[in-house]
Amino acid sequence: MTQGPGSLEGKVALITGASSGIGAAAARVFAREGARVVLVARREDRLAELSAELRAGGAQASHCAGDVQISADVERAVSHAVQTYGRLDVAFNNAGAGGDVAPLHLLEDAAYDLVMDTNVRGVWNCLRHEIRAMTAHGGSIVNTSSVAGLVAPSVPAPYIAAKHAVIGLTKAAAVECAADGVRVNAIAPGLTRSEMVEDWFARVPGQQAKSMASAPQNRMAEPEEVAEAAAWLCSERASFVTGATLPVDGGRTTW
Ligand SMILES: NC(=O)c1ccc[n+]([C@@H]2O[C@H](COP(=O)([O-])OP(=O)(O)OC[C@H]3O[C@@H](n4cnc5c(N)ncnc54)[C@H](OP(=O)(O)O)[C@@H]3O)[C@@H](O)[C@H]2O)c1
Q1: What tens digit of pLDDT does each residue of 159-168 get?
Q2: Name one GO molecular function term (predicted).
Q3: Cβ(54)–Cβ(31) under 8 Å?
Q4: How many domains does one find in the chain?
């Protein structure tokens, strides 16, 4: 059987939070599907290592270190994509932070600020610069929300508020940009193996077993399983999907 072109063949894709977890897995999946990828996060050494790995595998990949909380950093990353590859077609706005674990009345304001500034202002910054780069020719954007954007699991309240806000921004942008041929969707991952989750389990005894048992599949996702859903939504195979939030959660929000 001949293998057809990848679902993102020739597309230029920007991926935030690409230095680990779901974002790093997405870099590999998007590159495998034929995209030219630009990797964004704060840890430049990780990005350099991953983009070199992708290039060694035959992909076109580069990186631009930056903090999604800072509009100028995101603007620089989008410009890097356009200057390096000529355009921006696809964006996976995936950078996020879980923040301190405590009941909301015991959290400091700084904990709220970090989570909102990373997860909500970060997506806000990304959407604004990406949409400006896409309106002339269309494109597809996927934002990473969470099951915590759909229900209120046992995670900190600012994170729940932030991930609900990501879904609100996704819907607003989808409606505003539909006429320009830009689709905007969100994924809502459930428990997924990553640095964020390993850190959470290390800090809260018993949380791992409790979290695994909260979904019918009774396991954690591998980051690649979430990345595959993002790749599909980013691709033209999802051409009539916009404003949607796709749970990728082993059934966590079903029962
Ligand atoms: N793992 C799960 O169970 C789960 C479930 C639902 C949703 N999510 C969401 O999935 C996304 C990816 O998380 P993950 O699970 O893959 O965890 P992770 O391995 O900790 O990845 C988080 C990524 O975000 C980047 N990041 C954090 N703050 C940033 C900032 N200010 N500017 C730029 N990049 C920043 C980190 O890179 P640097 O530190 O190098 O900047 C890292 O690449 C997040 O939005 C998270 O909320 C995860």
Answers
A1: 999 999 999 9
A2: oxidoreductase activity
A3: yes
A4: 1
